[in-house]
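This section describes the prediction task in plain terms. A model, or a person checking by hand, is given the sequence of a single protein chain and must write out its three-dimensional structure as a string of tokens. No templates, partner chains or ligands are provided. The sample shown here is typical of the held-out split.
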Amino acid sequence: MHMAAQHPTAAVLLCEVVMEILSWIPAKPVTRLKLVCKSWNSIISHPHFVKLHLHRSPKNAIVLSTLTPPFPNKEEKQSLVLSSVESFIQNPSSTVDAQENRHSLHLQDWVLDSCNGLVCVARLLFHPNNDITDICFRLLNPLTGFISENSPCLRVNVNNVFGFGYDESSDSYKVVTFIRDSSGTVTAQVYSFRGSSWKTINSFPAFPYCVEANGQFIGGSLNWLGVRNPHGDDYHWAAVTLDMLMIVSFDLKSDTHKQILLPKGINEIPRQEPTLGVWGNRLYLLYDYKNTHFIAWQMKEFGDENSWTQLLKISFHHLGVETLFPEFIFENGNIFMLRGRHCFEEVFYDRRDNSVKRTNILANNCYFIAFDYVESLVQPC
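The expected answer:
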């Protein structure tokens, strides 16, 4: 007796049920399930499944650390290290020292940022004139092993600012930087990894950007702290006033920019340049106040200047430091990682219980920088 052929409708329903179940499984085991059978491999590899899985993946559960030797030589390499947020906070030194989940990079590589499980890596080619460099970018997915082709090289000043993000309207990942020519005109240079060349966007405000941090990606835009009306490319922080500061927000869909005002409650210029941060779809402004307190503002609704809320103000005395530099935000804006006076001293402040944890991160005498990261199956075309 021959078994009746499966009805097409039943086959489609079975496929949808399998997709629904698989979409809730973490990324790493899902990649192994591609080996179960051809139909599962087809389901897991389908772009619709990849997007559904990313949407349902736990957000902000992974920290991506980059380790850079302080005195590079041919024997040493940079590394990417992935770890859970919990293990990183509990024991950051041993976490970044661990060999598992480590990925090697070239010494000339520089990690720009991470978005949707993709890491944007820049390759720097310096000229004899150390103020100029050629730079190209590629994407990699540490989970799947995907590596994109390099972007075309772009000649930039070493003080350029960069940003990396995702344009949902075109399903494309983009890199943005700003270039000022000899006449003082500023243009945005945009590269889409779906394209083949850099695109020039004119009519940008001719002022420099704080170069200590990359553009922060949120709400389909990249955001930098900018300084109005300085003379030339450079500026002296001691001469900057509050009315000169704003956030410049670049929309990746429309290639346009707007300016976002800082919180109205800031009544004097910070002693050091503020830091922008993003966690859980919220924008943060972090800075020190009179070298005695650490202050954090949160924009509850991105783009709404009236939604700025002062999240915390904590004294350096309570933190046990004399000076600090904001670095990273965890746990939906509840835990702040701050770098103390010494480059290997990290301070974790948990505002939920007002607790402070200080630790020295030696990491084999390597410098490290932390990024938000989520494991995904994304492999852009």
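For orientation: The first strand starts at residue 62 and ends at 68.
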